[in-house]
Amino acid sequence: MRQPAPNFTNAFLGTLGVLLFVGLLTIGAVWGWAGVIFGALGFDGVARPIARRARR
């Protein structure tokens, strides 16, 4: 008679939770950096004409 298969449900759910956390953290970090870059480019686009007018 065969041995029953071990129950790896808890190990799977634990690993899935860790991978989901790391994946969401990575997505948050990437979008965070993208937000900073786009915000800086937007500010530069607004500030450059103002600085040009101030120099005249």
Description:
The protein has 56 residues and is mostly helical. Helix content is 84%, strand content 0%. It contains 1 helix and no strands. The longest helix is centred in the middle third of the chain and has 47 residues, at 9-55. The model has no long low-confidence stretch (mean pLDDT 91).
What's the helix and strand layout?
Layout (H helix, E strand, L loop, with lengths): L8 H47 L1
Q: What share of residues is helical?
A: over 70%
Q: Give unreliable regions as ranges.
A: none
Distance between the termini: 92 Å
Summed up, the helix count is 1
Largest β sheet strand count, sense and barrel closure: none
Q: From N to C, what is the helix and strand string?
A: H
Radius of gyration from the CA trace? 25 Å
Question: What fraction of the residues are assigned to beta strands by DSSP?
Answer: under 5%
- Mean of residue pLDDT values: 91
Strand count: 0
- SSE-based structural type: mainly alpha
Overall spatial form: rod-shaped
Task: Give a concise summary.
The protein has 56 residues and is mostly helical. The protein has one helix at residues 9-55.
Features:
56 residues, rod-shaped, mainly alpha
